[in-house]
Every structure is written in structure tokens, then in C-alpha cells.
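Record now logged for everyone:
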Amino acid sequence: MTDEKSRTTIRPAVPNGTQGGTPASRSPAAAIEAFVAQAKSVGSAEPAGRLVFALDATMSRQPTWDLACSLQARMFETAGRIGGLSVQLVYFRGFGECRASNWVRDARSLTALMSRIDCRGGNTQIERVLRHVRSETGRTPISAFVFVGDAMEEHVDALCAIAGEIGLLGVRGFFFQEGADPAAETAFRELARLSRGAYARFDSSAPGELESLLGAVAAYAAGGRRALSALAGPQGDAGRRLLSQMG
């Protein structure tokens, strides 16, 4: 798995104190206040939250992959109203392939990444996803991770051990299941509990449901429980479903 991360260097423009091409008269105190104000403005360019967006990309998942690709903009839109979001795409497919992207800050970049990936046959590799989240958390603060899948073909106890460690690190896991596979539901519910997150099932024929769930997770990643609680208003069914499980 690749663990490469993108880093954006922000170079603040130094105020030159000019007006109309000539130096403006400014006291030292005023200059300091202007510099502090500008520094705060520059600092706000860094997104408030980091979210690992993990998906099963095995062959059966192509329709849902396309759906997630079309809906992921909701995450950035919701988080943008709160403080912004950086997202890392993680996926597995084929024979032992599990990869992680750079961190991206906008829906267009994530769409470009996802559009270059096609689903391929293979078994689930959820353990590798969880190990990556645990490892990545040691390098940079992560607010939450979401996993979207329809099956679990691994040793559930091994997955649970890692999920518990992730929960102790303060990273909540949100597991969204397509379909009604009982083994997947049992595993996903337990993984969500151990990582102190939440579980939900969705139907790919009702795309609005997954869209709302992704938006609710983005709200939490960008602004914590307070932001998720604010989202869970009269129309926030997804937010209420997640909050009710988070304890």
C-alpha cells in the first residue's frame, strides 16, 4: 500500500503597506495587527478535518463504485460549510491490491482519482484498510474513516483487534453496508462499535441515502459531534442514525 501524502506549502503575501504605489503611513501596532490578521486568514486555508474514504473495489462493486464517485462531492460541500476537509481514498481489488491516494482537498480531485480506477475480482482486504488507518494516524491526525462495502471474507477477530486499537487512538470508524449479507452486517456492526463509530445499511437504488450518510460523516470529520448534532435536525435522518450509535 502506498502511504504517500500530498503537502501544500502556503506562502503568505507580505503586506507592503502601500496605497496607490506609495508607502502608506502605518504605526508599528497597526502593522502588527495587520500581519496577525493575515496570518489567521492564511491558516484557515488548512482544512479542519481529515477523512479516510475506503471502498471495496472488487468486481461486484462497480455499480456502487460509480455511485460513490458521483456522490462524494456531498462530503466536501457539507464540510466546506464547517471548516473544510482533506480526503484520502483507499481501495482494494484484484489479487492482493490495496492502495491509498494522496490527500486531496476538493471533489474534483477525488473524482479524477476515482474515475481512473475500475473494479476487479478478488476477496475483501478490510484488514489491510484498517492497518493503513492505524498506521496513517501515527503520521497525521485523522478525524474519522468510512468504509463502504457489501461483504466480509476475512477472520473477524483479527479485524476487531485492529478496530479496537483505532478506537483507542480517537479515530471513529463508519461502516456502510450495501445489501443484506448477514456475515458482513455482523462484522461491520462490531467493527463500528469497537472503533466508537456507527454502522448503517444503504440501498444502491436509493442514492440519496448514501449521499446523506457521506455528508453526515464529513460533518463529523470537519466539526466533531457538535457539527454532526447540528446536521441532525428535522431533515437530518442520517446524522441522527449515526449519533444514536456513537455513545
Notes: The mean pLDDT is 85.
